[in-house]
Amino acid sequence: MNHHRSFSEKELMNDLIASEKQISSSYNIGITEASCSNLRQHLTNCLNNSHQIQYDIFDAMRQRGWYQVKKANSQDVESAKTRYNQEKTQLQ
């Protein structure tokens, strides 16, 4: 007896966004390890495209109520900016 289970749209989109996150991670590693400027530029373009695809999937899921996010208040945003700017300054 063959049982074929088809995946729901939500399951497929969850898989897609997880895959795109993994792909982005791989591009990041490639960029940091590439010594050829042309390769670095190509991988950076691929990474940017991957980020856009991730956002498109995220936004479609959010619109369907499948990806809930907490809205950041302005104080939290400013606090994060300050913290990351301090870290950036310390690394320079």
> Which geometry do the CA atoms define?
flat
Count the strands? Answer: 0
Pick out the low-confidence regions.
Answer: none
Distance between the termini: 64 Å
Give the rounded overall mean pLDDT: 92
Query: Structural class of the secondary elements?
Result: mainly alpha
Percent of residues in helices = over 70%
Strand content is under 5%
What kind of sheet is the major sheet?
A: none
Please compute the radius of gyration using only Cα atoms: 18 Å
The run of helices and strands is: HHH
Count of helical stretches:
3
Count of individual domains: 1
InterPro entries: Ferritin-like, Spore_coat_CotF-like
Organism: Alkaliphilus pronyensis
Protein name: Spore coat protein
Keywords: Capsid protein, Virion
Give the topology, please.
Layout: H1 9-33, H2 37-63, H3 74-91
Provide structural commentary.
This protein is mainly α. It has one domain (9-91). Helix content is 76%, strand content 0%. It is built from three helices and no strands. Helix 1 runs antiparallel to helix 2 (37-63).
Can you describe this structure in just a few lines?
This protein is an all-alpha fold.
Features:
single chain, 92 residues, mainly alpha, 0% strand
